[in-house]
Predict the 3D structure of the following.
Amino acid sequence: MVTIAHETESRGGSQRRVLWLLVRRDLRLRYSGAALGYGWTVLEPLLMTLVYALVFGVLLPARKIAETPYMLFLVVGVLSWNWFQSALVEGCRSLSGEAKIVRTANVPRTVWVARTVIAKMLEFIFALPIVVLIIVFYRHPVHWQIVLFPLGLIMQVVLCYGFGLLLAPLTVIADDVVRIVRIALRVGFYLTPVLYSLNNLGAADGYGWLAEVAKFTPMAAILTLYRAGLWPQDLYTWPVYVVTSVMTIVILLLGRVVFTRLEGTVLKEI
Amino acid sequence: MAPVITARDLGIRFYRNRKRNISLREVLLKGRSTAPKDQFWAVRDVNFEVQPGEAVGLVGANGHGKSTLLKLIAGVLLPDQGSVEVRGGVAPLIELTGGFQGDLTARENVYLTAGLHGLSKEQVDERFDDIIEFAELQNFVDTPFRHFSSGMKVRLGFSVVTTLDEPIVLVDEVLAVGDRKFREKCYARMEELLGGGRTLFLVSHNEADLTRFCTRGLYIRDGLLVQDGGIEETLASYNAVLDA
């Protein structure tokens, strides 16, 4: 059995400190070279939301595909999907992209993945004021189910962290992983109720079962938790949330196993 | 006294080529690959103990596993065989500029690197001026790191890592860096660290450096530890092999 022991004072405390240090560095790097800085965090999802609103809300208004106001519905989906997508793509590269620093610093290697997920979460949170502005603009009512919002946040953090632990070491070994993830994310974007609501989907044409299946994609239930305070009627039945939670935890455990198994190999390859 | 570094049957192997991609599935399923032909042991069956305050020189030809051994001690490589136990933290003078980010300023990089090696923000605050002064970068504190000359980069790296409180210092060939004036300062800093009771592990091809700092020598050949003794005699047998 291979063992390694590096003894240091209060491991937990110093890990948190290192994580925070790296998150701050990530955010600083992201904003350092850009004149507009924070503006990009808000502008990019806002532009995407406007484009989707134009195409699916104005140009193709054949039927009701989501809750109204559509802009508001979209912006919540776009922001959280952006976080998911960037956390996964950059999560893949969280070890290989930092090869030099991973090679020299003896910190728990999981920190490299965690910092990507947390940095992306903070960007998501920093962009939330747009949602508030749009709510105010439409004078949309906010219901008590808004308390489910943090639950969605926690589930997404765990999900992204699990995927990151799984993908980061695999990317070091085979760079193809990033490409696969990109394709999967593009497919996932249309399978996940970002642009539409699954509750308004397919039933009339006999494809209702497809919508039922799509509810079990990793991000679907999480999105409804974010939207619960705005459209409580859009929430799914409770088994969907149980299954999504279990799935999230399974991905986390799988990620941990793969990460631990491949850690030695990763350090050699990097 | 209890040893600060204990290596038991320590070993690590690497792939000779990039064929390992194929065995990814195998690694996932079994945790290891079963294609031993493509692998070689960079370090194997290495056993030693280092007491606190000892200064150990690592001697051996290029590619025989000295740096790999150092990285195993630093915890930035994990062994495939045996174990290495390190009590207390390690200040690694390995790939000195590795942790620095080109887009961040010298100041930000100092806080980042020192933080990664265990210093709190307050501790860095306290030492910041000393770090910059030692690296002679007073006028470039807020300059992005990528604009630094290679000498400046290494000076900053050396300055940060030797400021750490870690009781064990690992040095890989970095004493040769910088101009003569800076090298003198490095020597002085190293002696100061040793005088302060730190444990030193030095990899060098420079005999003068080795005899200056070290009392004990480990001779690594083909990944095996072939001699463990006084630095003078270890160097003598290393030279004997070279001359033969």
Remarks:
- The longest strand of chain B covers residues 39-50.
- The beta strands of chain B are 5-15, 39-50, 55-59, 81-87, 90-93, 168-172, 199-203, 216-221, 224-230.
- Residues 19 and 35 of chain B are 10 Å apart (CA to CA).
